[in-house]
Specification:
Blueprint (H helix, E strand, L loop, with lengths): L2 H12 L5 H12 L4 H8 L3 H22 L1 H29 L3 H18 L1
Helix pairs in contact: 1-2, 1-4, 2-4, 3-4, 5-6
Amino acid sequence: MAKNLEVALLLDFYGEMLTEKQRDFLEYYYDDDLSLSEIAANEGITRQGVRDAIKRAESQLFDMESRLGLVRRFDEMRRGLDEIIEYTSKISEYNLRHSLSREINEYTVKIKTVAQMLLD
């Protein structure tokens, strides 16, 4: 995963655990695509001060993920739900080709709907 995307995802999960300034700096840098110099000028601090604050905040995000693993678990659940949807499609196709059980068709549609709802 690209670092920008990874930090953005970590920020979504753990951003509220950072200080407001740390969140702001990360959002300016990653979401708004401002340079360190632009952020420094807007905030009235040095470019090095912005860089240090961003690096500290990134380090905290990665540390939180290594301890809590919420992003990893989220990715695992998403992959599992994708598999469930794939398998329900295969069951439905098999059912149509072989026995045409209305109950199996209804259950696979319900399972697929719930899995899709959890993904959205």
